[in-house]
Amino acid sequence: MAQPLNFQVLPSRDYVLSSAENFVLYVLLEATAQKGGGGARLPLNLGVVLDRSGSMYDERRLEFVIEAVKFLIDNLNPEDQVAIVAFADKAQVLTAGAAADKQGAKRAIDDIDLLEIGGGTQMALGMRAAIEKVRENLAPERLNRVLVLTDGQTYEEMACVDLVRANPDIQVSAMGVGIDFNEKLLMRIAQDSGGKYHLISDSAQIPSIFDDELQGLRAVAIRNGRIDVLLSQGVQMREAFRASPEIYSLGEPLVGADRKVSYQIGDLEAGVPASALLTLVLPPRKPGPVRIAQASFHYQVPGAAESAVTADVTVEYTLDRALTSKANSRVMNLVDQVSIAKLQSKAEEELKAGNVDRATRLLSNAIQGTQRLGNIKATQALSGLMDQIKQTQTLQTRAAKTTLLNAQAVVRKTQMLDPEALKEFKPE
Q1: Residue 40 — very low, low, confident or very high, per pLDDT cuts 50/70/90?
Q2: Which of the following CATH numbers is that of domain 5-37+221-326: 3.50.50.60, 1.25.40.10, 3.40.250.10, 2.60.40.3670?
């Protein structure tokens, strides 16, 4: 029987300089669920949260939402559960229950614009109503997911974050339409819960995004992935990033007294690598092989108990500088992509603080990095952003905000670039 999971541990270098006081080593921890790994497809338990504020009538957004949700309903199986919630100033459940009654559910969606729920944006109310419905059918043998779509800023942002924290067994995928929504909030909701974040710059993309979510749920082969890392004595962790399928910070490393740190990876779709990239700082040691850490990936195959696979992170200490200069191109490729994402984020912060010159220098460095990596899409996106900044000196115009959101989405998405294109990239 084929193994359900491939877990690999790749250091950026196999050799470490013995005399170095603070040798920086990157370690890629990557899990890939195998296709046909033996698990059964799990029934779905979905809550769909739809913004029905006044702005959703712009650019035919509500029309495309109705089309997308009907498509979703048509493609659910009878054993799947789905609850559709609309929100504005209030929240109302349109339909909830087994997906067997497709016609009844679609009739309820057709009446979404008749609801008397105001015209504001109280997303937390919609999320709470959907989560309550999902919890009614919550079970380990179901994929429990909430999908949130909005096109605007919401009141009580922290209430949305608190809902995610209070329901760690439910993943939330967040979809932002247009340019007026709070992208930081939607990213945080998705990242903290293990869901996906989608930028929808064109309303006509809404049905395809719902299709992407559904196909992703159908492809889940591994549940509840978690990486545990045990650091050897003297080894420090500087930072950790999610490196694929999207790039974002995993927060300040919380290494306990037992020298352990854990990262929730969530569900894995078959064939889609899910990885974490760690930055470790190593102490000097005598020449010879050393285990600097031990990594374990804990997971569940649908219908089975939790399993784990463990691998040692080992390097060879040496006095030969020539050996320490040899890097793993696959790992360094991802290091470069993470560095570019950090530069883009720092440039955005500098611009918001009014430091235009600093922001453009950071973006210039990021563009040089994408060019060296051969990442054409990221180069075009960042170049467009820099042009907008030079023209407007701000992110407040509609064109600048649109360009920023597109650049964020492109840079955050991990690109499977040719490792042979690797060149040394040293961010500012």
Answers
A1: low
A2: 2.60.40.3670
